[in-house]
Design brief:
The chain is α+β, with helices and mostly antiparallel strands. The chain is built from 3 helices and 4 strands, in the order ββααββα. Strand 1 and strand 2 form a beta hairpin.
């Protein structure tokens, strides 16, 4: 009878780092009603780290299929550039150009809702739906 072995010796148990965690957030964006007579609040899920500009970047990314089916519109110009938050200022990319009244309202209300969510700043006294 012949026996053979590969010569690999047993190793101790190796411990790894903690398991990765995923943060899922519900963020608010504001879209224009189909009739273009007001804004409507929409909730979008986002997985990952959020900051004050995250919801704005979701808004700039355009409508979801569901929002299109509902007839909602956006007047915020789409861009592939990121929006940044610096202190209390939202910095928009140059290629967004001049903004319509509804686009300004959408950005304003989305920024207020995002800041309230991320920084815990109350949105009282703000006239957003």
């Amino acid at each position: 009878m012949t026996l053979s072995a590969c010569g690999v010796r047993p190793t101790p148990i190796l411990t790894g780092a903690d398991a990765p965690t995923v943060s899922s957030h519900e963020l608010t964006v504001y879209l224009v009603k189909a009739e273009r007579d007001g804004l409507v609040r929409r909730t979008r899920s986002y997985t990952g780290t959020v900051d004050t500009a995250t919801a704005i970047n979701l808004l700039v990314g355009g409508l979801t299929d569901e929002e299109k089916k509902l007839g909602l519109v956006t007047e915020v110009p789409a861009t592939s550039s990121r929006v940044f938050a610096v202190s209390n200022v939202i910095v928009l990319p140059e290629d967004m150009g001049p903004l319509s009244k509804w686009a300004q309202f959408q950005l304003y209300c989305t920024a207020i809702a995002s800041r309230a969510k991320v920084e815990g700043v109350p949105a009282s006294g703000i006239d957003c739906p």
